[in-house]
Design a protein that fits this description.
This protein is mainly alpha-helical. It has helices spanning 18-42, 49-65, 68-86. It is built from three helices and no strands.
């Protein structure tokens, strides 16, 4: 009995098909993309002064285009929101 030798061979695993490879790598890249999205939400991004200047320039341009009546309406809406916040 001790002289008997058992030859165990590993099970035969078929080569992955093209669809299985696409699925595997697609899931991998999807997981990496999700991690990047979560990190983008968690980690703060500092704004450059140039970006602030561009956004303020566009706001002043939009304010110049609007008529005075709409600015008065906006002021009344802001006053209403502030009074609701105080409650």
């Amino acid at each position: 009995m001790a002289a008997e030798v058992h030859h165990f061979s590993p099970p035969e695993i078929p080569e992955p098909t093209l669809l299985e490879n696409v699925l595997r790598y697609g899931l991998f890249f999807g997981a990496v993309f999700q991690l990047l999205c979560v990190l983008a939400i968690i980690l703060p991004v500092s704004k450059s002064p140039k970006a602030d200047w561009v956004s303020s320039e566009s706001k002043t341009w939009e304010a110049a285009k609007k008529p005075k009546a709409s600015s008065a309406a906006q002021l009344s809406k802001k006053a209403k929101k502030e009074s609701k916040k105080k409650r």
